[in-house]
């Protein structure tokens, strides 16, 4: 019997905007099906530990970060008895520095994927402060995808365009053989609470796009005939949501 797909949260450190009292966890996700290992997002670049201000540049005046070597994506994967060479695909929800910096630790040993719109937006001369040039230059090696995608070709894992937080943000929907499907919001909403109440992030690329994406995901949940377990990119506690919430 085919075993259900599992999702584990990878602890990649934490972050907060200066002036805020609350820290937000920085998370990646390990998806394990009966056939493949997939990582969604990669946390921080290793240079952020040894040269925080040099790596962040002007961002160091905007955010505070707490991260150790154990929070880096390769160490987090090892906690699940895997090496980076065991990862079949890496999906980037978007290219903000706290989600794709750890890409260098995969050393080109796996297929790494991002939405083309996200890659193009990140190269725009007027991109938002959350992008880091070192990360974006490395992302030239990623496979660029356009729109929604059946990732494995078997209807099990879907990449869903959810623009708004960034120009080419994407979320991940997993059609599970277990009692509930799984939705990785990533940064479509920072927390499940924010998602349930259809709130928007602090500094969205376009607020109206973000809200439209959130509403579309709500519609998808409402159209399911079973509950959906929802994970958010900066929220350590997933929640089961059904059409009756």
Number of helices: 8
Q: Kindly give the count of domains.
A: 1
> Strands across the major sheet, in which order?
4-1-2-3-5-6-7
Beta-strand percent range = 25-35%
Q: What is the CA–CA distance across the termini?
A: 32 Å
Supply the CATH architecture: 4-Layer Sandwich
Report the CATH topology name. Metallo-beta-lactamase, Chain A
Helix content: 10-25%
Average pLDDT, all residues = 93
**Secondary structure category:** alpha/beta
- The CATH superfamily appears as Ribonuclease Z/Hydroxyacylglutathione hydrolase-like
Q: What overall geometry do the principal axes of the alpha carbons give?
A: globular
Spatial extent as radius of gyration:
17 Å
Low-confidence stretches: none
Order of helices and strands: EEEHHEHEHEHHEEEEEHHEE
The main pleated sheet reads as:
7 strands, mixed
Explained architecture:
This protein has 245 residues and is of the alpha/beta class. It has a single domain (6-241), classed as Ribonuclease Z/Hydroxyacylglutathione hydrolase-like (Metallo-beta-lactamase, Chain A), CATH 3.60.15. The chain has 8 helices and 13 strands. The protein has helices at residues 47-50, 52-56, 73-78, 97-100, 116-122, 133-138, 192-196, 207-222; strands at residues 6-17, 24-32, 37-40, 63-66, 89-91, 111-115, 143-145, 149-150, 157-161, 170-174, 181-184, 228-232, 235-241. A 7-stranded mixed β-sheet has the order 4-1-2-3-5-6-7. A hairpin with a 2-residue loop joins strand 12 (228-232) and strand 13 (235-241). The longest helix has 16 residues, at 207-222. The two termini are 32 Å apart. The model has no long low-confidence stretch (mean pLDDT 93).
